[in-house]
Amino acid sequence: MSYSERMLDQLNSGQLEEAKKSFAWALRKDDDDTLFNLAEQLYGLGFLHQSQRIYLKLLDKYPDEDEIKASLAEIAIDGGHNDEALAYLSQIAPSSPAYVQSLLVAADLYQTEEQFEVTEEKLREAFRLAPQEPAVLFALSEYYYLVGKFDQAIPLYISLIKQGYLEFAKVDIAGRLGMSYAQSGRFDQALGYLDQVDPRYQTSDIRFQTGMTQLHLGKVKEAISTLQELIDYDNQYASAYPALASAYLKENQYQKALKAAQEGLGVDQYNEQLYTLAAEIASHLGDYSLMGKYLSTAHQLAPDNLTIALQYSNYLLQQHRYQDNIDLLKPIEEEHEVDPQVEWNLAQSYLALEKFDQAGQAFETALPAYQDNPTFLRQLIDYYQQSGQRDQLIDELERYVELVPTDTEMVDLLDSYRDF
After folding, report:
1. Which ranges form a coiled coil (predicted)?
2. Alpha carbon 359 to its chain's center
């Protein structure tokens, strides 16, 4: 047994002091091929300093060996010494057998510096030179996966599988394919690969994407099972709770949906979207007090979110809390560009409180957006009736009857005003 082999065995068994001694003897006694192999394995185990020492020793002996320079550049990048890495890489010519390897290392370097255009350029050059090289296929597919270009990642992952690589660099390729297909909206293909993920690689992200894919495909019961298993496996995975609540909501299992949402709020108490989901579930249960509590909290967490503000406003209107609704929307009206829904909701509150001047202004502002909306026109007609504006009333009645000619009540009302 070589000293290198002895060191690796000692590392595996936790004999660190003995491993240090064997490493020293390996540097002195083992042949160059054995040392090169040891350097590769030590790098994979995270012993960067020891791996670097071996490569430097070998480079001193073989100064023209570009593969060693590429490996030293990789170690330098891991240590945050990018200038040193570039110095090694600049010595590797395009004619070198190690040039493709150097391109992959350079891509890694530029990715750490968030120079993604240069990263892609290096990877595409490597792919042009070695389109079937597994390390190149994997590096380029992982880059596309990282930047969200899933349609470009998919064929590269498939090429790896065709070459027999179900995993590469401790990454499950089926999982990557499943996630990529899902992010591209191709859920049937996604589920086929996600179901093949090796149990060793069943991460929380994989489980979550599997559940979401099942939901998209209408496999609600399967999604509930998957998402509940995810929570049992990782109860701090916050995204699982709204997904599970939504799944129960689809099944009209409102109590279970509310329980899932409330458990999620215990994990992520600042998620305004989860509060709005909980409010929706509470409304199905007829618990309007709880609904209001959740919507109020959501609005407090995200006061600039107009969608949430309008959801809360609609709730206040349903509860006939007209002054509260005005207090909610008036600051929004003053701080933002005119929003027709804000104006309509304000108009309803002003009308209910018989503040006709304010109601009229709000209705007039909202009218261009809702002039073909029968519900809006009914309320506008009610306003004109209460405020005694006969001519405007007739105009809106005519518009309404043209939209809804089957509403005999409004047809008769229009006739009565015409005959008067």
Report:
1. none
2. 42
Query: Cβ contacts of residue 386 below 8 Å, gap of 6+?
Result: 351, 354, 356
Bridge partners, 168 (sequence order): 171
168 phi and psi, to 5 degrees? -150, 130
Strand 167-168 relative to strand 171-172, pairing? antiparallel
Query: What mean pLDDT is predicted for residues 4-14?
Result: 93
pLDDT of 121-134, one tens digit each? 999 999 999 999 99
Q: Global pTM?
A: 0.81
Sign of CA pseudo-dihedral 20, 24, 26, 32: positive
Burial degree of 288 (CB within 10 A; 0-12, 13-18, 19+): middle
Give the integer Cα–Cα distance in Å for 229 and 233: 6
The domain ranges of the chain are 218-298
The residue type found at 415 is: D
**pLDDT for residue 366 is more than 90:** yes
Residues whose CB falls within 8 Å of the CB of residue 372, separated by 6 or more in sequence, listed in order: 403
Are 182 and 194 a contacting pair, CB within 8 Å? yes
Cα–Cα distance for residue pair 258/329, rounded to 1 Å: 28
Give 44 or 312, the one with higher predicted confidence: 312
In residues, how long is the chain? 420
- CA–CA separation, 343 vs 336, rounded Å? 12
Architecture of the domain spanning 218-298: Alpha Horseshoe (1.25)
